[in-house]
Structure formats: structure tokens, C-alpha cells
Amino acid sequence: MNRHDIIKASAYFVENSKDNYITKHAAISDKVAGMKIFEEPIFAFGSADDEYFSLLKKPSVIGKHFLLPKEWLPQSETVISFFLPFSEAVRKGNAEDRVWPSEEWLHGRIEGQIMVNSLCLYLKSLLTSAGYDCIIPSLDERFWSITKPESTSSHPGVSFSSNWSERHAAFVCGLGTFGLSKGLISKKGMSGRIGSIITELFLPPDNREYTGIYEYCSMCGTCVKNCPVNAISIEKGKNHNQCSDFLNKISARYKPRYGCGKCQVAVPCESEIPY
Length: 275
Fold this sequence. Notes:
8 helices, 4-stranded antiparallel β-sheet, two-stranded antiparallel sheet, alpha+beta
């Protein structure tokens, strides 16, 4: 099995998976029934031994709670990171209202994550069938994620963090760099979802085509203007508390769905690297 096999099989799976389309039963309204969530995924392959992963343990980056690929899977050789770009319907739908998320985006955030998990599990089945062990960190029982710290938290002093970061893993693998809003800007832009899997199969790692953390971000400030609650600024970047508080309001309003994404649409980095 090689990278071409993985990319080709994944493209076919995404295009034909029922999880990539909103059923009439699940649709918030008839308007979004049958809507396609994602376009074809793009991939990056990183070495499990890449020194950049170790740098993520620094307190100024993620912290010591971040687990290295070999802490997830001791015999790991490769980290496979992928980006699923949202369809035009999802992106355009969310650009219509400047404050509240569209039906398309709400489905993209929740049903979209189901599709991300489905692709991860599909990749796992491909690899294990070929005889290679693998781990999906985000679906592993050891995975944890925290937003605002609570008094009962088993990870005191940690906030807005997790022991595996899809965005940081994607950066290390060569999939893209960060933007001012802290999302990842890939060759297919920022508007989409990220997933990853760690495997003992050796695949030649990609070369990172960048050196800077924010190299693909033009710092144009459009996401600053788009944010409904002014949670992003050129000077300080993203205020996680303000963003989280607004997401809680959205969750209460649209339960069981949530999502905002105004910093990912109607921006130069929506579907490409801005030049």
C-alpha cells in the first residue's frame, strides 16, 4: 500500500459515502436535504519521528500533555493528516448572514464531523486489512479535550487544549499553516475539517513547503471584520473565551447543533492560499 492508493481510495469513499450527504430525515429543512458536505480530501504524510512533534510539548505551543505519535502507537512510522474542504453549498450558505450560522454550516459542523470520523475509520480498515496497525487519536479512549477549565477538571491549569491537535499535526505533516483566526490554511483553504491517523506503515514524508507558523496567512484582517463578537484582532489574534461564549449561545439557540465559521467564509483564505 502506498500514498497513491490511500488518496485514491479516500476520494472514492468520500464521494460515495452516505455520510457525506444530508438525508431528508436529518435535514433541518428541505432546503438542505441532499446537500453534499465535503469535496475531495487532500492529504499530507509526516514522519512519526519528526522533531516538530516534540516541539508541540513546549508550554508556549500546546504543553507536556500533548502525546507524541509514538506515545499513541510505539511502533508508529507515519502520521497521515487530511483536510476535507467544505462544498460550495456549505461555504456560500454561511456567508449570507453576518451573525448566525446557516443551516448548511450547522450540518457541516455536526454531520461533517461524523463524515470525518467515517473517513478515519475507513482508513483504519484499509491499513489493518493490509496488515498495518494504526491509531485514530481523536477516537481513542485516551483522547481528551478541554475548553474552559472547571474545578473538577482532571487537567488543572489547562484550557482550550487537548492531548492531540489535528491542526498542529496537519502543520507538522505539511498540510498547511495557521491563520490569524487559528484555523489551518491548506491549499484548499481554511473552510473545512481536519482528521488524522497514526500508522506503523512507513510512507515517505512530505516536505513542508513553509517555515513560518502563519506563512499562508496574509494578515488581511477580513476574518477580524467578519467575527460577530470581535473575538479576533490583528494585534492579539483570537480570544478563545469570547469565541467560546458565543458558541455556547449558538448551541443554546440551535441545539443539538452548533458552529459559527464566520472567520472561514467570505475571506481570501476560504478555499485557497491567499496570494
